[in-house]
Description:
Blueprint: H1 3-9, H2 21-29, H3 38-51, H4 56-61, H5 63-69, H6 75-79, H7 83-91, H8 99-119, H9 122-128, E1 135-136, H10 144-155, H11 163-172, E2 176-177, H12 184-189
Parallel strand pairs: 1-2
Amino acid sequence: xxxxxxxxxxxxxxxxxxxxxxxxxxxxxxxxxxxxxxxxxxxxxxxxxxxxxxxxxxxxxxxxxxxxxxxxxxxxxxxxxxxxxxxxxxxxxxxxxxxxxxxxxxxxxxxxxxxxxxxxxxxxxxxxxxxxxxxxxxxxxxxxxxxxxxxxxxxxxxxxxxxxxxxxxxxxxxxxxxxxxxxxxxxxxxxxx
Length: 193
């Protein structure tokens, strides 16, 4: 049996579109893996905010275009964007062109940078909510933890960081481990929730 067929018959989380190689790769190699790198944490936070009202698959399919358009999500560069850059992004047909989300990215980059200065890293801030522990749960779209982090980020001035977006973010960066019971990744880790 060739590798492509073997990959397709692996049982994965029900949300993973098996007809989309990018989605399979994201599910298998990235989603739910503990992430501590601030650059990646920033990128995923921004991408999750663009997902609001859309599907994650839509955002994931445009991820490389987002990276190019947003200077590889370099925080310092994103903090310095002015109206001319916003207008340039609004003209970019390869990304999600939503002025409020683009402006939120600039705003959130500045707050992300402030959090880094306050805590030493954004990783220390976000993982501090669970004392660096992973929470194992599934079939949820929000929790007390996502409520708490969402509220804190909003108080700091971030936009597009509601509890559902933050819950998805926490799943993506591995703070919340949510692979379905049938998923081969959960079975490989022998996790019983």
